[in-house]
Predict the 3D structure of the following.
Amino acid sequence: MIELDQSPGNYYLRFATYPNGDMQQVLEGQAIVSYDTTGNDTQDISVDPMSVWMLTNGSATQGANELVESRLAPFEGNRPPTTAADVTRFFNINQTDIVTWVVDQYPYAEPTIPIIYGNMSDGWNANTTLHSPTNSTVDIVMNVANGSLDTMGHPMHLHGHKFWVLGSGSGSFPYQSVAEAPPSLINLDNPPYRDTANLPPSGWLAIRYITDNPGAWILHCHIQWHIVSGMAVVLVEGEDQLDALIRQGNSPDPTTPLKSGTAPSYIFNFSRSLIALGTMLNALVAFP
């Protein structure tokens, strides 16, 4: 981390992805962040002092200081509620067969009518749609299921919110709630505040958020073929305010048939094509 009270000068940055599990894409790059009051911004990036600390394959050399994400505290004052959560949900992340991933027992399927339309939607009462009261503290504890075909890690992303990353670890979360866990596992003082967090391979991840943004928000893995294979749930909050939000946004009546060639028709068709493509890619991966 670079404090913003440093002297003007050139700060060399270098990044590299490190292949892990199914995520085998290798990227590497360099940059210079220049804080210079003289107006001279001509610098030679080939002279890279960061090469002393990081190899091009992403591994750190001996003596380098590695970033520990759990220590990335948010701005002062942005801390989670420290009382017990109003709602606690446990999700077992599971690859149930070659082309199916689930967050909570059932694979997510796109509804015909968006869930934000309430009980008009065929997804409103789906097993993958979960409802929470407004202005409540919600804890979500995710575990990689022991019986999953693949026990890799997952970048889990929540729409509509940022959340506090309370903790993560290997194995299964051994408590019935966050409140039961010791401070050595759960950080309620200054946890990271993110919209994406990594669920470790064969491990657990605990997050906390407040239901203060009415809507139907999807929680999903950010690996593309996992989400199109069903690895998502929709978290609904502020149910009594959804109708007003729809009217405010001038959304069309979902019961009115779409005209051929309209934008929504293309969107739905493209989304279903992605799901079909993801299924084919999964089959190719499984049967090379």
The helical segments are 224-227, 242-248, 263-286.
